[in-house]
Amino acid sequence: MNIICNAPGFVKCFFLDNPAFVRYDYTMDIHNHWVEETLAGRDIALLGFADLSEIDVDARRGFRYGISLAMALTVLPSTSGAPSAAYYDEYRRVSAALRETTHFLVGQIQSRGYNALSLWLLDRQDENFRTPLPFKTLATRAGLGWIGKSAALITKEYGNAIRLGGVLTDMPLETGTPINASLCGDCMECVKHCPGQAIQGNQWSLDVDRDDLLDAHACKRAVVERGRALGKTEGTCGICIAVCPWTRPL
User: Fold this and answer.
1) Does residue 85 fall inside a structural domain?
2) Which of 12, 17, 51, 112 fits as disulfide partner to 175, beta carbons 3.0 to 4.6 Å?
3) Do 46 and 144 touch, CB atoms closer than 8 A?
């Protein structure tokens, strides 16, 4: 039997022996499983798929779908006055692994005939430490977690002790249920322990701006000050990670 197929998201198969007979095969779930298999063995702790159609089209570079990846931190930050060199090394290791993994996934998706872009390529912050499409926004759209009072992603599985990566693509995907509300409740632990007093203590929802949650400049100053002992200007604080009740040491 001769068959012609076209696959923009569904496979539409015309049987040439009987052109009036058309069969549709659902392929989105197949792509999801393929991504999972492709990333097997790469220490991905959480993986989610997002429909980005409600996100500004320029911010998502015209792509309809997003893949959110998280790797767990196996070393937690110090909550004392001195930063932890072990945590800084872990922060750098996991960040590098995520960057390499997203670039790898982009190449694999392209080899299947679809377009894809690593979100790392869009992760250039402006003077107010903003990016067009934050990793955490993609993660909430994929249903991995919510934005905490610290303006970081919080997950039920790992709390805040993760690093995030992301891929944008036109490969059709079965997408998760977005998370639109915070589960932080009345907790104020990150607010009380922030050395820069940068966390405002407000609850996140979709209409809450990042600046209503966090003074990003105060946060950066605290990170720089805390990192002086290590001669570093990033990845040296993370106290909000360690004190979050959702965070569970591995």
Assistant:
1) yes
2) 51
3) yes
Residue 8 belongs to a domain: no
User: What is the rounded CA–CA span in Å between residue 112 and residue 186?
Assistant: 47
Q: How many residues does the chain have?
A: 250
CA atoms within 13 A on the CB side of 28: 16
Nearest CA among 237, 224, 239, 249 for reference residue 88: 237
2: amino acid identity, one letter: N
**Complete DSSP assignment for 198-209:** -B--PPPBTT--
Closest CA to 121 of 47, 63, 44: 63
Q: Are 14 and 22 in contact (CB under 8 A)?
A: yes
Residue with tokens 């915070």: 182
Question: Structurally, how many domains does the chain consist of?
Answer: 1
Judge whether 19 lies within some domain: no
Question: Cα(73)–Cα(111) distance, rounded to whole angstroms?
Answer: 31
pLDDT tens for the chain, residues 1 to 250? 343 344 444 443 333 444 443 333 357 789 999 999 999 999 999 999 999 999 999 999 999 999 999 999 999 999 987 889 999 999 999 999 999 999 999 999 999 999 999 999 987 888 899 999 999 999 999 999 999 999 999 999 999 999 999 999 999 999 999 999 999 999 999 999 999 999 999 999 999 999 999 999 999 999 999 888 888 888 889 999 999 999 987 7
How far separated are the first and last CA of the chain, in Å rounded? 54
Asked whether residue 151 is assigned to any structural domain, the reply reads yes
Tokens of 90: 């872990």
User: How many CA atoms, within 13 angstroms, populate the side-chain half-sphere of residue 15?
Assistant: 8
79 and 193 in contact (C-beta within 8 Å)? yes
3-state secondary structure of 67: strand
